[in-house]
Design brief:
This protein is mostly helical. 80% of the residues lie in helices and 0% in strands.
């Protein structure tokens, strides 16, 4: 759970690393073995989805109510 701007920055950095990992798999594994790519990319993509939800929850808390 994200509680402050620093944690938000760290979460975004984690997302960048996960995206680079999936891009690397896309370039190196996908052309040779699409089924293996799907298996290897599943966890990073799940993590990206989880981190997106955390960011969304945090930014919703920042919106003014009224």
């Amino acid at each position: 759970m994200i509680h402050d701007i620093q944690q938000l920055r760290v979460t975004m950095q984690q997302m960048e690393r996960l995206i680079r990992a999936v891009e690397d798999l896309k370039e190196t594994v996908l052309p040779k073995n699409p089924q293996l790519f799907a298996t290897l990319a599943e966890a990073p993509l799940d993590d990206l989805g989880r981190l997106r939800k955390e960011i969304s929850s945090y930014t919703e808390e920042l919106k003014p109510t009224g």
